[in-house]
Design brief:
Layout lengths: L24 E8 L2 H11 L3 H4 L1 H5 L10 H15 L12 E6 L8 E13 L6 E11 L5 E12 L5
Antiparallel strand pairs: 1-3, 2-5, 3-4, 4-5
């Protein structure tokens, strides 16, 4: 089920833990990747030649400038906050289990997200919250998956009426 194909009973931004059904798939986002953003991110956080310089990058295994994988992960986080994570109930995340960079992201790419709910469990020790496990897939304009991440989100449970 995709949020583009069928109505979601509770909009993403208004959801509580109970509103993340296992098996749900949501698709969203459209983030353009610019050369300027790749260069600025690399200069600040990941100054490797294939992220910083078109000429140097041409002589690498990538054959040209590519975004840092950490930039791709940051863009994914931005799309999650803009389109999916509920400000009403999000309590952050205890971490991720797996992060994979599958294909280079290049200037001019447009990225979007596909998020699958893998598991949802109410906390036994803290009854005000639950843990949701997600598979996040970052997909480019050609439909190629460029990054995957398996992680968790903590969400408040719906208050009693």
């Amino acid at each position: 089920m995709s949020n583009a194909e069928s109505p979601i009973p509770v909009p993403f931004k208004e959801r509580y833990f109970e509103d993340y059904p296992v098996g749900e798939i949501a698709e969203f986002g459209d983030y353009p990747i610019s050369e300027a953003e790749i260069l600025a991110f690399a200069a600040q956080y990941d100054p490797q030649p294939f992220h910083l310089d078109q000429t140097a990058a041409a002589g690498t295994i990538y054959g040209g400038l590519i975004a840092s994988g950490w930039m791709t992960a940051s863009v994914a986080m931005r799309m999650m906050v803009d389109h999916y994570i509920s400000p009403r109930s999000s309590m952050g995340s205890p971490g991720i289990d797996e992060l994979r960079w599958l294909r280079p992201v290049r200037p001019g790419d447009r990225l979007r997200m596909r998020v699958s709910v893998l598991d949802a469990r109410a906390s036994q020790s803290k009854p005000d919250r639950g843990m949701v496990q997600f598979l996040e897939e970052v997909v480019n304009q050609e439909g190629t998956t460029v990054m995957t991440l398996k992680g968790f989100g903590m969400y408040a449970r719906r208050p009693a009426a």
